[in-house]
Amino acid sequence: MLSSLLVANRGEIARRIIRTARRLGIRTIAVYSEADAGLPFVAEADEAVEIGPANPAQSYRNARAILDAAKSTGAEAIHPGYGFLSENAAFAAEVINHGLIWVGPGPDAIEAMGDKINARNLMAAAGVPVAPGSKEPARTADEALRAAAEIGFPVMVKAAAGGGGMGMAVAEDAEGLRKQYDTVRGFAERMFGDGSVLIERYFPRVRHIEVQILGLHDGRVVALGERECSVQRRNQKLVEETPSPALTPPVRAALLAAAVRAGEAVGYRNAGTVECLFDPAGDEFFFLEMNTRLQVEHPVTEAVFGVDLVEEQLRVASGLEPSFDPGALTVTGHAIEVRVNAEDPKRFLPGPGAITTWVEPVGDGVRVDAGYSAGTTVTPSYDSLMAKLIVHGADRAEALARLRAAVAGFEIAGPKVNLPFFAELLDRPEFVSGDYDTGIVGRMR
């Protein structure tokens, strides 16, 4: 096992990684921006280095500052968490070239899956189902229209280099496509430095289901179940659960097998997620994208499998066997996670501010991964995620009951908070029944 680890991230995921690393006897180093100096993750690391101002480009996305911190502290490895530089192939390569251990997949796999069009083509060649869509970037609005004519409206217009639900829009007809093409292309150029656009079939009623994979150091790829991620606002997830209430055993088996093939196709190592769209009407699933990193929602997988995915990441990076038997994985119970954000529960607009009250819920099967505490401040510089509330029960009914109690018992004052939204969701028959899709939040508003 490696001996020292720099965590190139912030907030709850930095605390999460530090917690496991310290349990394993690994010295931990935090890096932080000026704005984050008072957050818990900074105090909980064995050592902490300030790397720049609040602007992420000058701190958490500043590869040079992070590598300098690793050198000055004698770090042996870097864990990128999620977001920021976690899926930056050039940064991963630079870490390795500096003689450090990169806790993640190789740069080649990151690069191969970073472009949605390239990823679709690779997956199709590997026998993984993909939704009807363009095999090449639509370089002009006219090319996008020709692709849409073959696919059929409505279509999804996507930034090929995008991720996390950003750079996506639906076009119902040719006029809408021309407008959305220009919008998405401009957004992609600004955000990702790549204006490539993908045209793909849009499914009006669809579920978003992903598979957790782990590429072991010996080349095997293991699937650790699926996660249902269909409760979303602006194509970004709010609630995740496992097992998915939508899948039959045959479909689940086919989905997990396809995810393993996806990982094998790119020689995947470490933790990753194969995201798919599931059409309940036809019992069909289609590859959406692969996230070449740890996911925000990984705790629900940990709950039902009894594994620590961060530990498994560190074991793979150290060239060690997993702590579990890949051939004897079993699911126990049901787990649900909600993302507690500093945002208006009606319109989901960010509402940062100083936290005056922070009381976390407790109880059987309740876990909170938090990035903040009373006396700290949520700034507008970063994502609005304050904490993840995770519950685990013997079945979905017990998990829902525990989640209702936990949502009611989570007290936060100061910034805006979306907890009232979850209370509303948990009383909605559509969600309680498990028969919901990605349009559920829109139907609530």
From TrEMBL:
InterPro entries: ATP-grasp (IPR011761), BC-like_N (IPR005481), Biotin_carboxylase_complex (IPR050856), Biotin_carboxylation_dom (IPR011764), Biotin_COase_C (IPR005482), CPAse_ATP-bd (IPR005479), PreATP-grasp_dom_sf (IPR016185), Rudment_hybrid_motif (IPR011054). Its EC number is 6.3.4.14. Residues 1-445 form the Biotin carboxylation domain. PANTHER family: CARBOXYLASE:PYRUVATE/ACETYL-COA/PROPIONYL-COA CARBOXYLASE, METHYLCROTONOYL-COA CARBOXYLASE SUBUNIT ALPHA, MITOCHONDRIAL-RELATED. It holds the Pfam family Biotin_carb_C. The keyword Membrane does not apply. Residues 120-318 form the ATP-grasp domain. Keywords: ATP-binding, Biotin, Ligase, Nucleotide-binding. This is biotin carboxylase.
